[in-house]
Amino acid sequence: GIFTVAGIIDSFVYHGHRAIKKKMEIGKLG
After folding, report:
1. Calpha distance 9→20 (Å, rounded)
2. Which residues, in sequence order, are CB contacts of 26 under 8 Å at separation 6+?
């Protein structure tokens, strides 16, 4: 229950953070 929700949120935040970082890197090049 609670651990599953926490895991989903954790993975969502982790992938979201990576996506933002990738966009920033692309923005710097462009």
Report:
1. 16
2. none
